[in-house]
Design a protein that fits this description.
The complex is a heterodimer of chains A (854) and B (391). With 854 residues, chain A is of the alpha+beta class. In chain A, 31% of the residues lie in helices and 23% in strands. Chain A folds into 6 domains: 237 residues, Rossmann fold, CATH 3.40.50.720; 51 residues, Helix Hairpins (Orthogonal Bundle); 161 residues, Hotdog Thioesterase (Thiol Ester Dehydrase, Chain A, Roll); 130 residues, Roll (Thiol Ester Dehydrase, Chain A), CATH 3.10.129.10; 126 residues, SCP2 sterol-binding domain (Nonspecific Lipid-transfer Protein, Chain A, 2-Layer Sandwich); 92 residues, Nonspecific Lipid-transfer Protein, Chain A (2-Layer Sandwich), CATH 3.30.1050. In chain A, the strands form 5 sheets. Chain A has a 10-stranded antiparallel beta sheet. An 8-stranded mixed beta sheet of chain A has the order 3-2-1-4-5-6-7-8, with helices on both faces. In chain A, strands 23-22-21-24-25 form a 5-stranded mixed beta sheet. Chain B is built from 14 helices and 12 strands. With 391 residues, chain B is an alpha/beta fold. Classes of the chains: A alpha+beta (854), B alpha/beta (391). Chains A and B meet through α23, α27 and β30 of A and α4 and α5 of B.
Chain lengths: 854, 391
């Protein structure tokens, strides 16, 4: 490392006759600086004055070949010191405020003079010198200022009240000058040295003083004052071989919402947070210091609460994400629990039988189960949001909103993100709305639930009462449909197996304790019944997959065995209002209820697969199979009528593998990634061939004959795929754009070309030429992939490459097939019938290719 | 069984899809033409057999009513491409069995553009077992299914007998030549072998001009007993000397495309007809046969016994299928050039042959035609062969 030099720099060091100052002066001088050695020559208590100390240091610097001048002014006449530097060297680059005195005395004995003298030398002296140099440094756009502070000021020290005051005052000045000088290239730092000096000789034992030589401090000063060093505003402790920077640490503390009175008792109760450093931060400037306060102002005034609920803590609280999964068995058990498939041969069989001929369909209201089970699990484990202080005994399920973004897949792994969405004060009780958003394996939102619980006796803090108007009021007219269905006496016992373990629905004694004659049916069980009723009446073909969302209010309890009467008003194609009564008591048990329906069954957006390297290259170069499929989906959305050909096609692509389903049987034909439960026709080909086929670069017929395309199932159905030709480039481009693909085509490396396999034909014909095949006729053989041509003159027993006039028969086939015929693996007849071998002219000679076998 | 006479025939000029009238109008014109030809009133007709493939139920009534709502039985008949001759056969049976004295068979079809394909997607395809044979033998492609089936049979024949591609095209060339002289035909423009081979390949060895077009049209025939003819003073009518229908046997579902497309059905039906008539193929003068594709006309020469098996190529190049040769096949232009409205084809064939036997063939008259043979084939399958005589 090169030596840190100060050539040409002018350095003022105050109090440089002895100790630290002298050490600094000699070091700067030795490193090429022009040094102003200031020392009043006084004693350590500020009395007397002699030029002797400064002169000795100057001499020493000069003796070592350095440049220095002495100055004998008091720091309180700082302007003179700076002037002498200007006079001698023309400028000032560095000011080291080092001069100081001690008037150590315990506070009760301290006089005003003790206080003032210490202040004058340390604080005012530093001010005078630095202030006089400040303009010079600002003007020249460069400066380094050091303030010498002390542990006594930072931490306090017995008998040094005046000194501590002065030293910490310098830290404040240093911090501010760092801010003010930053734009002008003027840096300020403070050091807190422990060094043996005249000032410390009095208080430290000799063995320690030996370790505290000034030479252990000076190197830090040199670095801080060097032009390379960008440190400013720092505070350092240094000495005895140690150097370290200090910073402020602040506890995260406690913030009370504004508008809420803070009592001394509150402070006491939060003392751990206020005074503990378990959670702390390190503010570096005023802005950071202000952050907790600004944040609190932004949050606005307190929303209040009471001993049951603290809205400020609870409202908006986000729970840790939770996970769950379900499969067909869970869906079927749930569907049975809400009365589905009582007719085991009826339409609802598909809700409970995973191998149903119509394809398994999830009952959409199962969407409530993962969220409710999550909440029950939280309750079981005693996890609540902060600020929620009521027990589960106060809680009733008041309202439920469940929305599906698309039909539930037969199985899924879900991640749940829950938060307290709303809290309303209903006077006697409170309403707490917990929102649970459930995302599927691809992080796509699948289910939104809002579970509204009524908390008995927890209201009355004078807060927001929330929406009060019933939005889903049944119209005046008679219901459009009425569905009546009796629940079973053991309905609750069956339903609870879907996860709601609450003994209220099973344990007679528990129910009694809760003031019910016997266990009651789960509100969500009636909810499921009602949804089934509505969906069967109001969706196209009774298909539950049109379900969008449901909102209900649980008005009264239902007992297992009650007869549910669902009264349905179909207000539009997409909105149905309903209510549920119990026939036996003519009571409304579910009110303010509605179901909304999708116009078309929504389909999951195909996810962009993590593509294999080749596929990634291909993607950059053009549309991927996924883009094409999505493009087909976009086209289908536009041309549902043309795409509806009544069949479900499944494409199984390889290299890389993917499976896509084109459902052209439904009224809303759609494309989805993944297998369909019941494809009519399965087409298997490579990813590249699929893309090439859709671009028209590959002929499906040829691929089929060449074995590159396999069709199984209803092969006639594949004839219906002609509509794929109608998919326009713009659809695929739109899909590419949406998937972010294809954009980097220019940057992408050219697609790796498949290494051509070695042609078999040339060797074969070379071998044949030597064998002089005999027979009759002149056969021109045209080979493709790779191309080649040979004439086999069987009459003459000659073989020659090239194309010739006068061949009686022309046979065209691929290199691979030629080799297969030659080896006897394929029969020419079969290849011909399959269109892989073409014969022009006389067919006869083509029938006997035995001569090909070398 | 009584002798059955064909006393009146009529048809409308065939049109391409979109250019024709609707089926009731086409059907009505065909019926009125047949009635006029027979010289009887519709009131004399005791039963009607109406053939069509594409249309909702009771299109037959809709057509018949436009001529007369006489309350007679109307039977709607559907038997794929052999629908027309199936209606004809039912009509003949009614008269032959003494059920009725005078009946009409009417066939009509309003077709869509493009190749034939299945109309119903939600149920089993009646041809799926046939398609299964093809899947096994040659796979399945994007080409029109019927072209794959008959084309595949052509491949099989070609491989077996070494037939030139030009031989198939020559059939189409002949069809065009005949159709050029038939005012009822759809394609009247002559084409040579070169042009036919140069048309786009549909399914080797078939090119586009070797495939019959989707067509709209109607044709009708009035059948009656000798007593009825005598009563109405109809002398020397054309009569049906033999008729048979065959359907698939297990032979169709083996490993042969030729069998799958009904070669054996043809052979067996023809054999039955020759036996019924006591007349062999050598005595036949004129033939209307089911040339939906050139390959099938070629096969049918052999199926009907017009030439020995494997002899079709020579038969064609010798000109034995056209004027001046041993037979004249499809003087009307056939399905290839006259057109193929599925329900009407069988009755249009009948119409042509009746005209030929009466000497009303005009520019395309086969001189001295005394015995006529009709062959109408439907995949699925049904083959109807009918022999007509006069005198």
């Amino acid at each position: 490392m090169s030596e840190l030099r100060f050539d040409g720099r002018v350095v003022i060091i105050t109090g440089a006759g002895n100790g630290l100052g002298k050490s600094h002066a000699l070091a700067f001088g030795a490193r090429g600086a022009k040094v102003v050695v200031n020392d009043l020559g006084g004693d350590i208590h500020g009395g007397g004055a002699s030029a002797r100390a400064a002169d000795l240091v100057v001499e020493e610097i000069r003796a070592a070949g350095g440049e220095a001048v002495a100055n004998y002014d008091s720091v309180t006449d700082g302007a003179k010191i700076v002037q002498s530097a200007i006079d001698a060297f023309g400028k000032v680059d560095v000011v080291v405020n080092n001069a100081g005195i001690l008037r150590d005395v315990s506070f009760h004995k301290m006089t005003r003079d003790d206080w003032d003298k210490v202040y004058e030398v340390h604080v005012r002296g530093a001010f005078e010198v630095t202030h006089a140099a400040w303009d010079v440094m600002r003007e020249q756009g460069y400066g380094r200022v050091i303030f010498t502070t002390s542990a006594a000021g930072i931490y306090g020290n017995f008998g040094q009240g005046n000194y501590a005051m002065a030293k910490l005052g310098l830290v404040g000045l240093s911090n501010t000058l760092a801010i003010e000088g930053r734009k002008r290239g003027v840096h300020a730092n403070a050091i807190g040295p422990i060094a043996g000096s005249r000032m410390t000789e009095t208080v430290l034992p000799p063995e320690l003083l030996a370790a505290l030589k000034p030479e252990y401090v000076t190197p830090l000063v040199l670095w801080l004052c060097h032009e390379e060093c960008q440190e400013t505003g720092g505070l350092f402790e240094v000495g005895g071989g140690f150097m370290g920077k200090l910073r402020w640490e602040r506890a995260l503390g406690k913030t009370w919402r504004l508008g809420r009175g803070i009592s001394a008792e509150d402070v006491k109760s939060q003392w751990g947070a206020i005074a503990g450093f378990e959670k702390a931060e390190h503010p570096e400037n005023i802005a950071q210091s202000m952050q907790p306060i600004m944040g609190n102002v932004e949050r606005g005034p307190s929303k209040g609460g009471n001993e049951f609920i603290d809205l400020d803590e609870a409202l908006g609280y986000r729970f840790e994400p939770a996970h769950s999964r379900y499969d067909e068995r869970d869906l079927a058990l749930y569907a049975l629990g809400v009365g589905a498939a009582k007719d085991p041969t009826g339409d609802e069989l598909k809700l409970v039988y995973e191998m149903s001929g119509d394809g398994f369909v999830a009952l959409p209201t199962y969407g409530v189960i993962p969220a409710v089970n999550w909440m029950l699990d939280m309750g079981k484990r005693g996890v609540t949001a902060p600020g929620i202080k009521y027990g589960l005994d106060r809680v009733l399920h008041g309202e439920q909103y469940t929305e599906l973004k698309r039909p539930l897949p037969p199985k899924a792994k879900l991640r749940h993100e829950a938060r307290i969405k709303d809290i309303f004060d209903k006077g006697k009780g409170a309403l707490v709305v917990t929102e649970v958003k459930s995302y599927d394996e691809d992080d796509e939102l699948l289910i939104v639930n809002e579970i509204t619980t009524f908390v008995r006796g927890a209201g009355g803090w004078g807060g927001d009462r929330g929406p009060s108007a019933d939005v889903n009021v049944p119209p005046e007219r008679a219901p459009d449909f009425v569905v009546q269905e009796k629940t079973d006496a053991n309905q609750a016992l069956l339903y609870r197996l879907s996860g709601d373990w609450n003994p209220l629905h099973a344990d007679p004694r528990f129910a009694k304790a809760m003031s019910f004659d016997r266990p009651i049916l789960h509100g969500l069980c009636s909810f499921g019944f009602a949804a089934r009723h509505v969906l069967s009446k109001c969706t196209k073909d009774g298909d539950p997959r049109y379900f969008k969302n449901i909102r209900v209010r649980f008005a009264k309890s239902v007992f297992p065995g009650d007869t549910l009467v669902t009264e349905i008003w179909k207000e539009s194609d997409t909105r149905v209002v309903f209510q549920v009564k119990v026939a036996e008591r003519d009571e409304v048990v579910i009110s303010n209820a509605a179901i909304e329906l999708y116009e078309q069954i929504p389909v999951k957006k195909p996810k962009a697969k993590a593509a294999a390297p080749e596929a990634a290259t291909a993607k950059a170069a053009g549309p991927t199979s996924a883009d094409v499929f999505r493009g087909i989906g976009l086209w289908m959305a536009e041309k549902a009528g043309e795409a509806k050909v009544g069949k479900v096609f499944q494409f199984k692509l390889s290299d890389p593998e993917s499976v896509w389903t084109l459902d052209c049987a439904s009224d809303a034909p759609s494309v989805s990634e993944g297998e369909s439960t019941k494809p009519d026709c399965i087409l298997e080909l490579t990813d590249a061939n699929f893309v090439a086929m859709t671009k028209g670069e590959k002929d499906p017929q040829k691929m089929y004959f060449g074995g590159e395309l396999k069709i199984s199932g209803d092969i006639m159905a594949s004839q219906k795929l002609g509509f794929l030709k109608k998919v326009e480039a713009r659809h695929v481009e739109a899909a590419m754009k949406a998937s972010g693909g294809g954009e980097s085509a220019a940057k992408a490396a050219p697609a790796a070309k498949k290494a051509p396999t070695e042609a078999r034909a040339p060797k074969l014909f070379e071998a044949l030429a030597g064998k002089a095949p005999k027979g009759s006729g002149k056969i021109q053989i045209r080979v493709t992939d790779p191309d080649g041509a040979w004439l086999v003159d069987l009459d003459a027993g000659a073989v020659k490459p090239g194309t010739y006039e006068g061949a009686s028969t022309v046979i065209t086939l691929s290199d691979v097939d030629l080799a297969a015929v030659a080896s006897g693996e394929a029969s020419a007849a079969d290849l011909y019938q399959r269109g892989k071998l073409r014969v022009d002219g006389e067919v006869g000679p083509a029938r006997d290719l035995a001569w090909l076998r070398v | 069984m009584r002798k059955v006479n064909v006393i009146g025939v009529g048809m409308v000029p065939f049109q391409k899809p979109g250019a024709s009238e609707d089926y009731p109008e086409m059907g009505e014109k065909a019926i009125r033409a047949a009635l006029a030809d027979a010289g009887i009133d519709f009131g004399e007709v005791q039963q009607a057999y109406a053939g069509y493939v594409y249309g909702d139920s009771t299109c037959g009534q809709r057509v018949v009513y436009s001529v007369g709502k006489t309350g007679i039985p109307v039977f709607n008949v559907n038997n794929n491409c052999s629908t027309g001759s199936t209606a004809l056969m039912l009509a003949r049976q009614a008269v032959a069995g003494g059920i009725a004295e005078c009946v009409i068979a009417i066939g009509f079809e309003k077709m869509e553009k493009g190749a034939l394909s299945a109309k119903w997607d939600d149920r089993a395809n009646p041809l799926e077992h046939h398609a299964g044979v093809m899947q096994d033998v040659q796979g399945f492609t994007a080409a029109p299914p019927a072209a794959q089936m008959f084309g595949g049979a052509g491949r099989e024949y070609r491989w077996k007998h070494g037939t030139k591609r030009e031989t198939f095209a020559k059939i189409s060339e002949k069809a065009r030549k005949h159709a050029a002289k038939n005012p009822y035909a759809l394609f009247k423009e002559e084409l040579d072998v070169e042009a036919i081979l140069a048309s786009p390949e549909v399914f080797d060895p078939l090119t586009r001009y070797q495939c019959c077009p989707p067509t709209c049209g109607a044709a009708a025939a009035i059948l009656c007993s000798d007593e009825f003819a005598k009563k109405h003073g109809i002398g020397d009518p054309v009569w049906i000397a033999g008729q048979a229908m065959t359907t698939d046997t297990p032979a169709s579902f083996g490993k042969s495309m030729i069998q799958m497309v009904g070669f054996d059905m043809t052979k067996d039906a023809a054999r039955q007809v020759y036996e019924q008539a006591g007349i062999g193929p050598d005595e036949v003068d004129v033939v209307e046969l089911h040339d939906c594709f050139t390959a099938n006309e070629l096969l049918t020469y052999e199926g009907l016994g017009l030439c020995p098996e494997g002899g079709a190529e020579k038969f064609i190049w010798d000109g034995d299928n056209t004027f001046g040769g041993k037979y004249v096949t499809n003087p009307s232009g056939g399905l290839l050039s006259k057109g193929h409205p599925l329900g009407a084809t069988g009755l249009a064939q009948c119409t042509e042959l009746v005209w030929q036997l009466r000497g009303q063939g005009e520019q395309r008259q086969v001189e001295g035609a005394k015995v006529a043979l009709q062959h109408n084939l439907g995949l699925g399958g049904a083959c109807v062969v009918t022999m007509y005589r006069r005198g």
